[in-house]
Amino acid sequence: MSWLPxxxxxxxVSDVLEDPVTSAIVGSLxxxxxxxxxxxxxxxxxxxxxxxxxxxxxxxxxxxxLYLKKLENAGIVEKEDGMYRLTPRWMDIAEVLRxxxxxxx
Length: 105
Hints:
The protein has one domain (7-97): Arc Repressor Mutant, subunit A, CATH 1.10.10. By secondary structure, it is mainly alpha-helical. Helices cover 58% and strands 10% of the residues. The chain has a 3-stranded antiparallel beta sheet. It is globular.
């Protein structure tokens, strides 16, 4: 499989970046690199990224869990023993496309 993202993957990246909460969750996972994050850690990091981007949104764990389930179903996130991380393929895509958390102002 090519290391460059295909059309479907580019569309998913676009969808992820359009939604500030999804972008913050994925951005948190990108920042953590290969480290797995628990749901509370992920919620905390995503909230910080949203604050840094001046997006007035508070997250609860159930809301983050729903976002993660959608990302998991799309093949972007994997869950193992209650911990989350980007799939290796999506970590590669993030590096190629330089997907990063929302910029702070």
